[in-house]
Amino acid sequence: MTQLKTETRGGARPNAGRKKGSSPYKESTQALRVPDSLVLPIKKLLEQRKAQLEALGKMTTELYFPTQAPPLCVLPLFAGKVAAGFPSPADDYVEKNLDLNELLVQKPAATFFVRAQGESMLGAGIHPNDILVVDRSIEVTPGKIVICALNGELTVKRLDCINEQWLLKAENPAYADIILHDELEMVVWGVVTNVIHSL
Amino acid sequence: MTQLKTETRGGARPNAGRKKGSSPYKESTQALRVPDSLVLPIKKLLEQRKAQLEALGKMTTELYFPTQAPPLCVLPLFAGKVAAGFPSPADDYVEKNLDLNELLVQKPAATFFVRAQGESMLGAGIHPNDILVVDRSIEVTPGKIVICALNGELTVKRLDCINEQWLLKAENPAYADIILHDELEMVVWGVVTNVIHSL
DNA sequence: TGTTTTGAAATATGTACAAATATCAAAACT
DNA sequence: AGTTTTGATATTTGTACATATTTCAAAACA
Q1: Touching check for B27 and chain A: CB below 8 Å?
Q2: Residues A189, A134: contact at Cβ < 8 Å?
Q3: pLDDT average, residue stretch B149-163
Q4: By C-alpha distance, which of B69, B26, B10 is closest to B44?
Q5: In chain A, what residues touch B61 (CB-CB under 8 Å)?
Q6: What whole-number distance in Å separates Cα of residue B66 and Cα of residue B56?
């Protein structure tokens, strides 16, 4: 015969139980059926989402990470020559399939975009209104093109160091270099890895 | 009492039953639990995948569509000024969240990538080794930058029409324009919408 | 002999459910 | 009075299962 224990701890009471939104995604989930080949990519995405939310929890500011995700998209990349007409897969025109996010974003949690203004970096292929891909995890060294806040103003320049003097160099003869002295408040946001130019 | 019907059609036999891979994805599926905010995007992706596979069934050649999907990726886009340090969401530095595929690929089924060669289009911001985003669904009109096969050679130029004479113009004084005459076999692949430049 | 109809079998798919996990107020302990 | 332990409860989460769908060979038909 089993002893009936009358436990007095725990028990029914308001506010008991697991809280809504206590999943790693901070929101409810639902079961979705997806094809095998998409399982791994989507799982990767879910891990990434979790990591972002975790990072978010440690930040004082918010909004750095998206609340909604976009559609996946992989498209073929062609290269080389082509017999007149559209290329055939028999020939090796298809270099490989390419995903833009994979190509341009190595570390999602450390990457953001900035829209370029001005013509000071034309020589580096950066035109007004271009979108710059910026990686905050890359080491800032002389020669790198960086996004920085100069006295509160966002700017893109090539960082350089000549005779122990740090410079921000424009890649356009019409613009003067900026010498970094103590009165100048300069904060580097990250290193520009790619430029997206719309025609 | 129920009448026991002895059906003679159908019945046990080899090769009966639904075939493996008879799903719209041509492969097996599995249930995956995803956060609410990802449900719609992923459903969109699944629809896209189905549409691609359907289109594939109607094509003679393959390989235009990917067999494996990439990770999703949305990142913030910043704009404007910034108080020294990293931007705060209280200010409006965050222009919007941005997905590269969404930004650069309007029609996945009509879009592909080509790697640029040569310096003939420097003036349009196209450098050697840049990746060009090409949309085959955009109408080819004078002024557009197009990818075309010229006697089997892949090239990128600006299409123009002067006095009813069609031209392919380079955007670099060092390169001559190409006049389109009957002996020249020219097939337009599509219109260049974006240029991706690596630093 | 060629065409159409038919139903059992095999796979596909949405979801219900059981098991796992997190939460917190009250009890027990210092 | 403050800290730690405890267990009922609410939610999350993986997956088994019931249902729907597709397929094909044999039977029925023309």
Answers
A1: yes
A2: yes
A3: 80
A4: B69
A5: 88-89
A6: 11
Cα B180 off chain centre by: 28
Looking at 2.40.440.10, 1.10.3470.10, 3.30.70.360, 2.10.109.10, the CATH number of the domain A108-196 comes to 2.10.109.10
Closest amino acid to nucleotide D25 (CA–C1'): B10
**What are the E-state strand segments in chain A?**
29-35, 75-78, 94-98, 111-115, 131-135, 145-150, 153-162, 165-169, 178-179, 186-198
What's residue B7's pLDDT?
54
Structural domain boundaries in chain B: 24-71, 73-104, 108-196
Nucleotide nearest to B6 (CA to C1'): C7
Q: What tokens appear for B115 in the block?
A: 């790697």
The set of residues, in sequence order, having a beta carbon less than 8 Å from that of B147 and lying 6+ positions away, is: B114, B132, B134, B154, B155, B156, B188, B189, B190, B191, B192
The phi, psi pair for B179, rounded to 5°, reads: -90, 130
Q: Tell me which nucleotides of strand C come within 7 A of a protein CB.
A: 5-16, 21-28
Per-residue pLDDT of chain A (199 residues; tens, 9 = 90+): 333 344 566 666 778 888 888 888 888 899 999 888 788 878 877 876 776 566 544 432 222 333 233 333 344 444 443 333 444 333 334 444 566 777 777 776 667 777 777 788 888 888 888 888 887 778 888 889 988 777 766 788 898 888 888 888 888 888 888 887 777 777 777 888 999 898 8
CB burial class (10 A; 0-12, 13-18, 19+) of residue B163?
Answer: exposed
Nearest to A33 among B31, B101, B195 (CB): B31
Give the nearest partner residue to B41 out of A69, A124, A189, using CB atoms: A69
Q: Please report the pLDDT score of residue B78 as a whole number.
A: 44
